[in-house]
Amino acid sequence: MLLCALVAYGTKILTEHTIDSTKNFSKASSTILSKIPPNDSRLTYAAEDYLFHYIKTHDVVFMCMSEESLGRKIPFTFLNDLQRKVGGILL
């Protein structure tokens, strides 16, 4: 299951949505945003039982967090779709 999604410019979170308001994913997301290299990239970070997937293009970062059991295909399909839908506005 996807638990959180965000769009950031560099390390600044522009918008974020979580499905579980009892958990604070902002701290983990901010930590991961600070570790993303300056070049365009796509990668998955593991933290505890969760995976943080991101696509970075021209300093715009599309990120989502999922349960480890979901794997990588569904989250990156979601991120590609999100990038296609809102990326033109931001890039």
Textual characterization of the structure:
The protein has 91 residues and is α+β, with helices and mostly antiparallel strands. It has a single domain, classed as Longin domain (Beta-Lactamase, 2-Layer Sandwich). It has helices at 26-35, 73-90; strands at 2-9, 12-18, 41-47, 50-57, 60-67. It has a 5-stranded antiparallel sheet with strand order 2-1-5-4-3, with helices on both faces. A hairpin with a 2-residue loop joins strand 4 and strand 5. The longest helix has 18 residues, at 73-90. The N and C termini lie far apart (28 Å). The model has no long low-confidence stretch (mean pLDDT 90). Keywords: Membrane. It comes from Puccinia graminis f. sp. tritici. This is Longin domain-containing protein. Belongs to the synaptobrevin family. It is a single-pass type IV membrane protein.
CATH architecture: 2-Layer Sandwich
Radius of gyration: 12 Å
Query: Any idea of the CATH class?
Result: Alpha Beta
Low-confidence stretches: none
CATH superfamily: Longin domain
Mean pLDDT over all positions = 90
How much helix is in the residues? Answer: 25-40%
Structural class, judged by helices and strands?
Answer: alpha+beta
Number of strand elements: 5
What distance separates the N and C termini? 28 Å
Shape: globular
Q: Helix tally? A: 2
Largest sheet: 5 strands, antiparallel
How many domain modules?
1
Query: What is the string of SSEs from the N terminus onward?
Result: EEHEEEH
Within the CATH hierarchy, at the fold level, what is the topology?
Beta-Lactamase
**Cross-sheet strand order for the largest sheet:** 2-1-5-4-3
- The protein's oligomeric status is single chain
Beta-strand content? 35-45%
